[in-house]
Amino acid sequence: MKSQDKGHLYLIIASFFGGLIGVLVKLTSGINSYNIVMFRSIIALIFISIILIVKKQIHSLKIVKPINTIFMGIFQGLSILFYFMAVFKTNISNAIFLVYSAPVFSMILSYIFLNERIEKKSLLGLVIVMTGILFIADPTNFSFSSQNSLGNIYALLGGFFYAAMAISVKPLMKKVSPYYITFWQYIIMIIMFLPFYNTSVSTIINNWWQIGIIGVFCTGISHLFFMNGVKKVKGQQIFLVTSLEPFLSSIFAFIILNEIPSSYTLIGGIIIMLGIYIISRKK
What we know:
Blueprint: H1 3-27, H2 33-54, H3 66-89, H4 92-99, H5 102-113, H6 120-137, H7 147-169, H8 178-193, H9 201-206, H10 208-232, H11 235-242, H12 244-257, H13 263-280
């Protein structure tokens, strides 16, 4: 198999596991989003630590740019938290497609904080994504008392904080390894959510397989496949392959949970992905 084909396969596997997260979160019982994020981080941290020891990469964990490192962990934690909260409030299709609006927030934050110029094609992509968001969020039926509306807000916040994480991690990208980023994100997320721990041992036992799959397969193994895939695939193709994830999430939600996305959600999701594709295109 050619190197690039292997890369595509690795990214598809990563997207497959990523697409399962929403369903697994929704299948949990008696455990809140804060604790799911914490347990996910603990399991993934153990997994990544084993890899670091085997690869003899422990030396790569020396802290660089501590402020950026701290904020990348905080923002990543908030992004995942709000996504999980969205999954509990609205359907998975709404949640994942709205979280995928993150590149729009990234573009705006880059303009504000990094003085990066916004190109015309990016503005077009912004308008297209906003149109897709309106299709999914349906502002005509918006209400703060509506669980669906609240879930949509949480999902957008998840996208916003993911974008904030991407901005905070930019100064680190050329100075540290992906293992550094992943390791410290998990450490910071554990510290963040430990004060909110309120899950009994019996609840953990009742949810062991959901939490285990989320931590080992959908986080640790998925991230490993993603990192290896990125090394072998051209930048533009990374987006095209990983854009399978929100559609896989919708398919899994339909098959396992019998969640049927509305036609507006599907149309909005396709519009959002089109807008993100335009934004991510190189000149």
